[in-house]
Amino acid sequence: MTSDELAQLRGMLAAAPVDFSIPALEVRAMFDGMIATFPVDESYSFVEKTIGGVSGLWLDAPRKSSSVLLYIHGGAMLVGNTFGFRGLSGNLAQASGVNMFSIDYRLAPEHKFPAALDDCHAAYEGLLADGYKAENIVVAGDSAGGNLALSLLLKIKATGKPQPAGAVLLSPWADLTHSGATMKSKGDVDNSLSHKGLQSGADQYLGGASASDPLASPLFGDYSGVAPMLIEVGSEEILLADSTRLAAVAGEAKVDVTLHVWPEMPHDWSLFSFMLSEGRDMIAEVGTWVSARVAK
Amino acid sequence: MTSDELAQLRGMLAAAPVDFSIPALEVRAMFDGMIATFPVDESYSFVEKTIGGVSGLWLDAPRKSSSVLLYIHGGAMLVGNTFGFRGLSGNLAQASGVNMFSIDYRLAPEHKFPAALDDCHAAYEGLLADGYKAENIVVAGDSAGGNLALSLLLKIKATGKPQPAGAVLLSPWADLTHSGATMKSKGDVDNSLSHKGLQSGADQYLGGASASDPLASPLFGDYSGVAPMLIEVGSEEILLADSTRLAAVAGEAKVDVTLHVWPEMPHDWSLFSFMLSEGRDMIAEVGTWVSARVAK
What we know:
Chains A, B: Residues 69-269 form the Alpha/beta hydrolase fold-3 domain. Chains A, B: Keywords: Hydrolase. Chains A, B: GO terms for molecular function: triacylglycerol lipase activity. Chains A, B: InterPro entries: AB_hydrolase_3 (IPR013094), AB_hydrolase_fold (IPR029058), GDXG_lipolytic_enzyme (IPR050300), Lipase_GDXG_put_SER_AS (IPR033140). The structure is a homodimer. The first copy, chain A, is of the alpha/beta class. Chain A has a single domain (3-291), classed as 3-Layer(aba) Sandwich (Rossmann fold), CATH 3.40.50.1820. The model of chain A has no long low-confidence stretch (mean pLDDT 97). In chain A, 38% of the residues lie in helices and 15% in strands. The termini of chain A are far apart. Chain A is globular. At the A-B interface, helix 8 and strand 8 of A face helix 8 and strand 8 of B.
């Protein structure tokens, strides 16, 4: 049905591959430049805000809402910003009927693990301090942002504070040791990410810390008592096994887990929803899931 | 929220454990006697039908529909019948807004592999011969019926006939070699099934055939090109890893797979929807998934 759209996206990804193994400043210029051009719904009015000491973009819900999506963008821990991801974060929040706060967490290599996670946690605590109830907060992230969202659940658990109402993980990068079987089996079909590029991101983020630390590779965390999860992943991703293993691990720990594997989809395809109907379909599915879990 | 309901169900399961390792005629009398007492919506009018040479129960859709759910009941390949499962099959079909045909396939030990699968396939072919389009058929099954529904997809693929619109797998028993990690890790909390009981069912069904045959253990099948799947499983099941591994295998083969792991739920909990709200919630979720995939 959408084979033309998909072929166009695959062509675009193949023509301008993002190589995370080149110097971060270069890949940042290239990647951030690309996503800054992505069309965004003109009705969205983003405002700059600082919550919990973390700066980011805020978007009000379509109708007044007491709930909020805390959004954590992707980019291999090295690149990306709330401006370039405002289309994706805005679409997810509007489909969910909730407010949205997307954060500019500190990036590697300038800031190493756990600086980014500390920023995510500070923003979550800031939302609580501002009066948002944990039960009306959903955390969400794509790719590296999915890693941080999962690590945030584990960090919140460690502090004894209440879990959010849910977590939405889009093509999450959950294992920085890269031990998943699809790291190899999907290597030829994934034209967004490479093992080499991810390794570069992981090395620059970790700065010598262990990739086996559950707060760095949340796949290895203990999920008992954490929030319900929605995991969305494409079949053509080297990170596919991060999602399938996460569903197994979290499910065994009695987490309410929904995993949806989308055939033929590349990494993080909802970032391209302006040109791909499956991106819009996935965003609608996220909206249904989130809005069923929080107050209006 | 439903802890009282769940405690009541767990108590019931623990008080009358179904031991599939005793002679089949005895466990059949016990199991079939138990499920025959389960309350069923009195508005459902089942009729006996034979389609493709396979007898079973038919239920018309609430409103006229050109689609049908082919239902395959569970019972370790040894027990169960369409009468005892008419509540579950009827609820699933009515929630989906489609007609339903639930089949009395041949049981082991009297009839060995692949007799049951042959009956499922004959019923599918019979529905096609009766004018139902493959794109308007959804196959569904619980437990051993989930095994047969998956094997049916593989068998349909082998014949080159069109796949159905989807497959709904409720706590499927996908691996008769019992190699899943939860076979042991959930052994203490699963008070519906035991490794020993399943081994007895598998031995009597296989009658010497290899448990590694993908038509006997469909976890080991090649899923490329098969129908979209919805997998529903509880966190407290020794069969949990059958579902999580199935999602990984089918997803890697580019199947549209949705897996939902329900915390605290025991094996096949929607069979007990008359006493458990999560059973009704799961049936509603199945209905939404099926009705989005077939014509009215």
